[in-house]
């Protein structure tokens, strides 16, 4: 069993694997694992010799302490779930406490991601991507993976990580994986566990709103998408829209209707149900 709470133990294991020339596929998570996480791990296990998973609720990427406190944690169950899918001998799990990661102060470093950090999630959650960069820089140096796997559910994060890789000149591949959804279309999320039964049904409307945007986009109704989607949110009780944006995948620059015939656009949404903040997106072209 390779479950480690200490970075020093991980470092020793990684050194041993490197001496055998074994490649590591790394999946960083904050735990409360679901099928979306498992899908990332399956790809990582398939494409590498060893699967490495970190489970750590990183305090510096939360700008809201209530959100941090309420973030679901169940490491025991997470470990069981991982080992029900993957070979114990080929799977490393790192579940540190905060002081193993942040020995002195719990603060983030600053990163410039070429402006990506100021849009959408960056604007809504100040400092969030500094926290993401800080933990990933630490984890990438610790695990030295050949490849690291990220979900397109957090599409902006995926672009941020690619920028981080460039900035730090890291020798690893960043791989984006498709969004895993419930039958209702709701994007799987650790936060979904905090929804009420009715909230689950309401939250599926987020997916519906993205489908609507995609449909309108396909039929060229560019100048009406934003308003129509916003209006659908106004009509649904207990579903509060934080933002809906159509932006270019490459730089996350908002696309005005005149630019919409371009390729490489995606619709991005954040909405709140039962006080739970939910994020989703969908490729339009
Ligand atoms: P988290 O534990 O929420 O920090 O997520 C860890 C990784 O899993 C991130 O790369 C997420 O983008 C990815 N992930 C979370 N939910 C999903 C999902 N429904 N589909 C695909 N990837 C996901």
UniProtKB/TrEMBL annotation:
Protein name: Pantothenate synthetase
This protein's pathway: Cofactor biosynthesis; (R)-pantothenate biosynthesis; (R)-pantothenate from (R)-pantoate and beta-alanine: step 1/1
Annotated (R)-pantoate binding sites: 61, 157
EC category: ligase
InterPro entries: Pantoate_ligase, Pantoate_ligase_C, Rossmann-like_a/b/a_fold
Biological function: Catalyzes the condensation of pantoate with beta-alanine in an ATP-dependent reaction via a pantoyl-adenylate intermediate.
Any matching Pfam family: Pantoate_ligase
HAMAP family documented for this protein: PanC
Family, per entry: Belongs to the pantothenate synthetase family.
Keywords annotated in UniProt: ATP-binding, Cytoplasm, Ligase, Nucleotide-binding, Pantothenate biosynthesis
Catalytic activity: (R)-pantoate + beta-alanine + ATP = (R)-pantothenate + AMP + diphosphate + H(+)
One GO process term, biological-process aspect: pantothenate biosynthetic process
General remark: The reaction proceeds by a bi uni uni bi ping pong mechanism.
Location in or out of the cell: Cytoplasm
NCBIfam families attached to this UniProt entry: panC
List of residues binding ATP: 30-37, 151-154, 188-191
Enzyme Commission no: 6.3.2.1
Major location category of this protein: cytoplasm
Annotated beta-alanine binding sites: 61
Subunit annotation: Homodimer.
Gene Ontology CC entries for this record: cytosol
Active site as annotated: 37
GO molecular function: ATP binding; pantoate-beta-alanine ligase activity
């Amino acid at each position: 069993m390779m479950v480690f709470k200490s970075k020093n133990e991980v470092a020793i294991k990684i050194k041993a694997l490197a001496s055998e020339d074994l490649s590591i596929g790394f999946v960083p998570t904050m735990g409360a694992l679901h099928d979306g996480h498992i899908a990332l791990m399956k790809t990582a296990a398939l494409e590498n010799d060893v699967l490495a998973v970190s489970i750590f609720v990183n305090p510096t990427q939360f700008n809201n302490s209530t959100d941090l406190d309420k973030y679901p944690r169940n490491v025991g169950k997470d470990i069981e779930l991982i080992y029900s899918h993957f070979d114990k001998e080929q799977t490393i799990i790192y579940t540190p406490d905060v002081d193993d990661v942040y020995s002195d102060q719990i603060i983030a470093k600053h990163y410039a991601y070429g402006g990506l950090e100021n849009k959408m999630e960056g604007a809504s959650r100040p400092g969030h991507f500094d926290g993401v960069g800080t933990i990933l820089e630490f984890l990438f140096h610790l695990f030295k993976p050949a490849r690291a796997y990220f979900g397109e559910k957090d599409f902006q994060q995926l672009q941020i990580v690619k920028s981080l890789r460039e900035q730090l000149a890291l020798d690893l591949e960043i791989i984006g994986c498709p969004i895993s959804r419930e039958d209702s279309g709701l994007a799987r999320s650790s936060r979904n566990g905090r929804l009420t039964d009715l909230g689950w049904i309401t939250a599926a409307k987020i997916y519906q709103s993205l489908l609507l945007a995609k449909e309108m986009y396909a039929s060229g109704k560019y100048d009406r998408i934003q308003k129509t989607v916003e209006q659908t949110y106004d009509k649904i009780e207990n579903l509060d829209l934080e933002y809906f944006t159509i932006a270019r995948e490459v730089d996350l620059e908002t696309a005005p209707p005149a630019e919409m015939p371009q390729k490489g656009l995606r619709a991005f949404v954040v909405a709140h149900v039962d006080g739970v903040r939910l994020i989703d997106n969908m490729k339009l072209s």
